[in-house]
Amino acid sequence: MPPAFADPAAPSRPLHVIPVADLPGWRAAQPAEVAAWLQATGFEAALGDLRLIPGPGGVAAAVIGHGTEKTRARSRFALARAATALPAGNWHLAGNLTAAERDEAALGWLLAHYNYTRYRPAKPPAPRALLQAPEGCDTARLLAMAAGEWLTRDLINTPSSDMGPQELEEAFLALAARHGAETTVIRGDDLLAQNLPMIHAVGRASTRAPRLLDLRWGHTGPLLTLVGKGVCFDTGGLDIKPSAGMLLMKKDMGGAATVMGLAQMIMALDLPLRLRVLVPAVENAISGNAMRPRDILTSRKGLTVEVNNTDAEGRLILADALALADEGAPALVISMATLTGAARVAVGPDLAPYFTDDAGLARALEAGAAETCDPVWRLPFWDGYESLIEPGIADLDNAPSGGFAGAITAALFLRRFVENPRYIHFDIYGHQPADAPARPKGGVGQGARALLAALPQMLDL
């Protein structure tokens, strides 16, 4: 079921949000039996600690700890614990929360209800604890962000048996149809005829044909082009991954899933811009016609690429798509990809690293990240490493040796295909390794909400 808020006209019970510093005064103002109950249950207002308050008809209210400034800084969406722990029914927030804290609580509540159940026995949907949207919240924006995130999570969580290039195409076309967008799909050998040779080279070994998905929406305003890596499963190709390395490869289309989630947000909110979304959708498989180590490919842009590792395939398909994007002279180009393990080593799974040469874009993005609880971290397009991606026999090397700065060299490789200086590249993880408030274990979007919040400043909307 899609995320939703409670009917604002319906009766609701209060969820009191209490910081540690306010607990003594708040408890002293409560009826004696409530104060005694909280004392007996050991409630100390630790961040996310929840207690139900009994009343004549059962549960009359609830209280949740808001911790200290220090503990709040270390956790996102802590109040969302209540969304899945409270009894079903309507609830409203009570307490001295800032506007930003109310937005965070409301968004976290929506995200916390996500549950991937496609392969479980069908059950009637369980009643939910629904939150009344706090006063002053932009409910349309919060709902759009939640719906976009749910789409991203669904796509990433679906195993490759049911989310190959064809199924990703179907999801892409369904997204376009919901919002009246136009689409074009180039499949199989037509990729060669349309000068998209590296997408073809990566995907041709699979029994599931490679393709480029192209969505266009909007008629006025600046042109925003999103490019998402759609590797629906990655064996590594002839440089085959060990079995342990393939366990999460259903998420290798996380870049595609995230730009589709962002597109859902943009179109649902009817932002005053023109949107183009490009998704090269492939499976990196093994067969007699698979690309080989040391093959040299000629890209759409005309640059030649020596394939020094067939497991560095994502940057190859993105390169052709980025060259195509650049030809349209967009106001802003953004690529998103689950591209390198080096990015995860650098910043872990919780941060979305990004690259840009434009300091203004970076400032807008980081402000948007703080506003939407969607953390990002800037890494450099370090020109000093350009020589690492130049093999000598071809213009570019898709997998430089040495093991240093893998995320940066991958980003530099992609930048060679974009002349537009207003370019942002994200190297995301797309997976939540353990349950956290509002983020159950599994697929997760990264950077999309931050971008949504930053777009008005980035594009002067």
Structural account:
By secondary structure, the chain is an alpha/beta fold. It folds into two domains: 13-132, Leucine Aminopeptidase, subunit E, domain 1; 141-458, Aminopeptidase (3-Layer(aba) Sandwich). 34% of the residues lie in helices and 21% in strands. The chain has 16 helices and 19 strands. The chain has helices spanning 23-28, 32-40, 69-73, 81-85, 99-112, 139-157, 165-178, 190-193, 197-203, 243-246, 254-268, 314-327, 341-347, 359-372, 406-415, 448-458; strands at residues 13-18, 50-55, 58-65, 89-94, 129-131, 182-187, 211-217, 223-228, 230-234, 274-284, 296-298, 304-306, 332-337, 352-356, 376-379, 396-397, 423-427, 431-432, 442-443. Strands 6, 7, 8, 9, 10, 13, 14, 15 and 17 form a nine-stranded mixed beta sheet that branches. A five-stranded mixed beta sheet has the order 2-3-1-4-5, with helices on both faces. The longest helix has 19 residues, at 139-157. The chain is elongated. One of its GO terms (molecular function) is manganese ion binding. It comes from Fertoeibacter niger.
**What is the class of the largest domain in the CATH system?**
Alpha Beta
Structural class: alpha/beta
- The shape is elongated
Profile the largest sheet. Answer: 9 strands, mixed
CATH architecture of the largest domain: 3-Layer(aba) Sandwich
Helix content: 25-40%
Q: For the residues shown, what is the average pLDDT?
A: 96
Poorly predicted spans:
none
- How far apart the termini lie comes to 32 Å
The proportion of strand residues reads 15-25%
